[in-house]
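Task 17 of the worksheet. Students: predict the tertiary structure of the chain below and write it out as structure tokens. Keep your answer in the requested format; marks are given for formatting as well as content.
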Amino acid sequence: MNLSGEATKRLLLYSLILLVVPLIMFPERLGTYLQDYSSTNIVLELLFYLLLTFVLYRQGNAMQMVAIVFIGLGYRLLISSVFSVLISAFYDISSSVAFSLGMYGYLPSLLFQVFATQFIIKSTMDKIFFSRPRMRRPQQSDSATFDSVETGTSTFVVTKEKNASRPDSPLPSPVQNQSGLENRPATAESPVIGGDAQGFDKATRYIGEHSSVKLAAVVDHEGLLLSNFTRGGIIAEDVAPFALLIKADGAGSMNFLSYGCPERVEFQLSNDRVVLCYEESYCLMVIAERHSDDLLNIRINQAMEMVKKYMSERYGEMLHPAMEKSYA
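Model answer:
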């Protein structure tokens, strides 16, 4: 679990809204009536949280969902307790009456807090239950030497010696530009501004416009991200290296059958569908819902053409001469 300061501030801000809005409305009942405590209400609240949990956390298992449900209930009870203290202080109401109103009696506050709770804690739950440690970038082989190729505001390297275990030609990886800022891979939450990743970013975002897509990523020959679009808590840096492992396993099997390296691999899991499209120096990786329609295939094919065109226009003249050195 690694909660950033920004996530904590966001949670506190939303919690403040849950307190202030009902406090402004109080004591107006807005056509509702005062509610008496009933265990049935708690059961209904738990069932409502469980329903939302199935919708918001489809990648979670049963234990995680049950934990999220009870965390949501605890969060709501905490907010209601603070609300009880506030109405007792501001409206000079006895503590017992204020507690009964704040916890379950005042329906406008209760309904507002119950409906908003799971949405407010979602980002925090994603970090607690579904975030994983980032994989470190593998170190370069000592036997490889590099040529530095500069293009405008960006720099990439091309190997002079070709390693037998890495048959693919290297692809320009995002590194520091002249201003000293690193060109980061694109995600759904952090768009790329400027730099060489724009062409790759355009392709991944185009695939990500399809509602079934959970991950769209362009991966270089070392398994490093050039750009990615994520939805639903997937950590792109953790998944990307497996594109190369799948290619290596597939190539071994196909070479045994004298078919050569596969250009496209597609398989289905219990809930997801994985599509891998390989070129000489990069791979397009897509993870989507299992029952996605044929329009996704069209978007994947069009995205591959976008990446090919971008590579040809951006790096064609400089990359091909440099690649020829590796075969000299």
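Marker's comment: Residues 22 and 93 are 16 Å apart (CA to CA). The chain has a mean pLDDT of 74.
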